[in-house]
Design goal:
Family: Belongs to the universal ribosomal protein uS9 family.
Organism: Calocera viscosa (strain TUFC12733)
Largest sheet: 5 strands, mixed
GO molecular function, one term: RNA binding
CATH class of the largest domain: Alpha Beta
Strand content: 5-15%
InterPro entries: Ribosomal_Su5_D2-typ_SF, Ribosomal_uS9, Ribosomal_uS9_CS, Ribsml_uS5_D2-typ_fold_subgr
Radius of gyration: 26 Å
Protein name: Ribosomal protein S5 domain 2-like protein
Number of helices: 10
Distance between the termini: 69 Å
């Protein structure tokens, strides 16, 4: 056969993978001979920030014209990440020929992060015609949809919005009080009787210092009170990004922007619960 990977299930994929691995060994050897490994910590940190955004599974299929699974992409991306890091080291070391050659070879597998963020990726949720932001949250089997609107449009956290067409405001039954939080059309203290659940919901407002800046309306379903409270907090944190995108670092550091993936472990056959066994008596 023309290729040693002819008898493999994915000949084109393994041909590219082994080529990248051979290139990685070559770059490592060149940099070790130049005595530039490992790089200083500040340079290594800037190199990690400048890594390209690699193509997704579907984009790999369209560009390279072969099928690829998630595990196969993960293996290839691991090699490409190392190549991108070593390419940055070669750039800082002044090895222009090595930097240009490797950069040209891996350029077809991804694009720069700034190009991706300026194009398809959305930095924060958009406001609707009434100035509301929306966030979806989940925890265990609970899901929550949260809407937020600024109590005062002159606040620095309230981004200006331009409706596409003039829309008359909906009829209101009365003025809303500041920091009104409604969950399933019920006040927060009425729906969640536990203090811990209420503190969990308003935690995104506390860590960002935005207590009293928004009126909040949430629709939640599924699960118990603890899961519903965490789901509302997750949706609330994502809705805050619509009004105050500069708070992303604070919310991310507090672990409020991403869903908690933990769920209850399923019951097993022959067990009382997930792992608890039945009482056994010999006689």
């Amino acid at each position: 056969p023309a290729s040693p990977n002819f008898f493999s299930a994915r000949e084109a994929y393994y041909a590219i993978l082994y080529e990248m691995e051979d290139l990685l060994k070559l770059v490592n050897r060149r940099l070790e001979e130049a005595a530039v490994l490992p790089p200083p910590k500040d340079i290594a940190r800037s190199i990690r920030m400048a890594r390209p955004a690699w193509l997704s599974v579907m984009e790999f299929r369209e560009v390279l014209n072969f099928r690829m699974g998630v595990a196969m992409r993960k293996r290839l991306i691991a090699v490409l990440d190392e190549l991108a890091s070593l390419t940055g080291v070669a750039q800082y070391a002044g090895m222009v020929d090595l930097y240009q050659g490797v950069s040209a070879r891996i350029a077809g597998f991804g694009r720069l992060k700034n190009e991706t963020s300026a194009g398809s990726r959305q930095q924060y949720a958009k406001l609707d015609q009434y100035g509301r932001s929306y966030g979806h949250g989940a925890r265990k089997t609970s899901t929550a949809r949260v809407w937020m609107i600024a109590t005062d449009p002159t606040l620095p956290t309230a981004r200006p919005f331009e409706p596409p067409i003039p829309i008359s405001p909906p009829p209101s039954s009365g003025p809303l009080l500041t920091t009104t939080i409604l969950v399933n059309s019920m006040p927060l203290a009425t729906y969640f009787t536990q203090v811990y659940d209420r503190e969990m919901i308003i935690r995104p407002l506390r860590v960002t210092g935005l207590l009293g800046a928004f009126n909040i309306f949430a629709l939640v379903q599924g699960g118990g009170t603890t899961g519903q409270a965490d789901a509302v907090a997750n949706g609330l944190a994502r809705a805050i990004m619509g009004h105050a995108p500069q708070m992303k670092g604070v919310l991310s550091q507090a672990g409020l922007l991403h869903r908690d993936p933990r769920v209850v472990e399923r019951k097993k056959t022959g067990r009382a619960k997930a792992r608890e066994g039945y009482t056994w008596v010999k006689r």
